Backbone:
């Protein structure tokens, strides 16, 4: 079992974020006799998944919905599958957008480098 501070360090997030996830019912850590939060390996794996969903722009409302469906049980499997398929579609769209932006930036960077190179050549001709 891990403390909130240990989990925050393992995951590279703040304890505030962990408390927020708990408040939003995205995670329900165990409590020890003193009432302190305790996280097991299953909690950490779930939080790693949540972090990846956030990193790929899944809104907190949808993460909450997924967590809620999971807690409801196996009869929500189709709904969870649908939610994840929808998110995967969104990620594929993000990838296409990022590739297009990357290509555009490559062209722009090449144009700037070419411009700078020609300026340097002009400077060298003038000084010789």
Residues:
């Amino acid at each position: 079992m891990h403390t909130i501070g240990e989990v925050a360090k393992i995951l590279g997030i703040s304890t505030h974020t962990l408390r927020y996830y708990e408040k939003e019912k995205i995670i329900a850590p165990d409590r020890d006799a003193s009432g302190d939060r305790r996280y097991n390996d299953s909690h950490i794996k779930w939080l790693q998944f949540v972090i990846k969903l956030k990193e790929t722009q899944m809104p907190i409302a949808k993460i909450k919905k997924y967590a809620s469906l999971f807690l409801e049980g196996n009869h929500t499997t189709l709904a969870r599958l649908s939610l994840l398929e929808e998110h995967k579609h969104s990620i594929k769209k993000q990838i296409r957008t990022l590739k297009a932006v990357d290509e555009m930036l490559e062209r722009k960077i090449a144009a700037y480098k070419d411009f700078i190179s020609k300026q340097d050549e002009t400077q060298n001709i003038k000084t010789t």
Notes: The first strand starts at residue 30 and ends at 31. The chain has five helices and two strands.
